[in-house]
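Q: I have four molecules that I believe assemble together. Could you output structure tokens for the complex as a whole instead of separate predictions?
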Amino acid sequence: MARRAETIELAVLGLLHEGPMHGYELRKRLNLMLGWGRVLSYGSLYPALKKMLRASLIEETMTTKTPGTPVSKRPRITYQVTEAGTREFERLMSEVGPTAWEDDNFDIRFAFFSSTDMEIRLRVLEGRRTRLQERLDRVQSQLAMTQKEVDRYAAELQRHGVESVEREVRWLSDLINAERKGELDRAGADIQDPGADTTSTGRQATQK
Amino acid sequence: MARRAETIELAVLGLLHEGPMHGYELRKRLNLMLGWGRVLSYGSLYPALKKMLRASLIEETMTTKTPGTPVSKRPRITYQVTEAGTREFERLMSEVGPTAWEDDNFDIRFAFFSSTDMEIRLRVLEGRRTRLQERLDRVQSQLAMTQKEVDRYAAELQRHGVESVEREVRWLSDLINAERKGELDRAGADIQDPGADTTSTGRQATQK
DNA sequence: GTTAGCATGTAAGGAGTTACATGATTTT
DNA sequence: AAAATCATGTAACTCCTTACATGCTAAC
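A: Yes, here they are, computed for all four components at once.
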């Protein structure tokens, strides 16, 4: 899967933002996030943590008590983000470009969208949408020119694939609209900006 | 991505069933099939072909003329399946088990479903559905117990993920029903079995 | 007490991508 | 003539998974 190294790093940084965590817990959270398929093995998590330690993006502490768990006797290695780590996280999150809208990368970035500006969010969402649209166009054009006798099942697989991507595109469009609407709302509300973050990320009636 | 080696092999074997092809063309077809994301590079295709040659699953021939292309002057290496290759393909296709319903593997198998018995098809479809259902259950139970303050975006990502998998499950259910219906049809039609393969793989009204 | 799950790692190896190399053929 | 794309490879390198190794702790 290749370009995951950076992805893991970003995910760890993002999760540790919520508070200190130890490896085992990190893995569980990670799998829940990007787990729609492959699971992350210890064999890649721990080495990645070590690497991040060396780079001073995170720090480790031995603790007997982690908030949440009921005072376990057993000391665990707990990781926290450092200053440098926070900066690196922000840098990675504001990076707009191809790497930001690739499948796995996109999901991680999206999950931590709260930590970014709307400007960045919009650019990532739109980039992702364009990417998917390109895929659709490519497949559909190739499909049009190949159009020899297609196998029943192969055709159904294609159809289903196209449908899924189209749905994904609509989802992104809804999200983009919601973001834009949020912007307008805020502009309309002018000076006052109390935590009123009503930007619904949910379904908006904006079909195709 | 790991378990792809076998996947490529299966895909190549299946495609060559349609007739001889050269590497370049193989790659294009492959990418169109399993290409919903990553593309297969020459760096993995050609070595795979070499390996299959050594195993005598395929044979190569130099040709100046491939059916379809307009008598190009340039000789290309064209691959064909051997007897052993055909047997291997059939063996792989009738293999029911975990490897058959993993993401990539499933897609390839599905694309070549025409080359298998309905019995196998049903088992693969059901296996796949069970697998997805398990994923859903796992995520939903973990979601239920973690239920601390979830981030807006993270939550939306989860929701969307669950929705996608649920949709996938419904798709599989429709297909399973269609297969079963096909069985009944055939049983009802009794002796006569002229190419009347009306088994629609398309949408059936069988929501959830 | 014993199973299941928590917790932390390491080593070896497989799989595939990137980048490099090369050249013919077709299209603009 | 240049650019695109067809066509076939190889080598190095990255990433990640598998399998191994170890031991604590909670629940049954």
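A: One point stands out. The radius of gyration of chain B is 21 Å.
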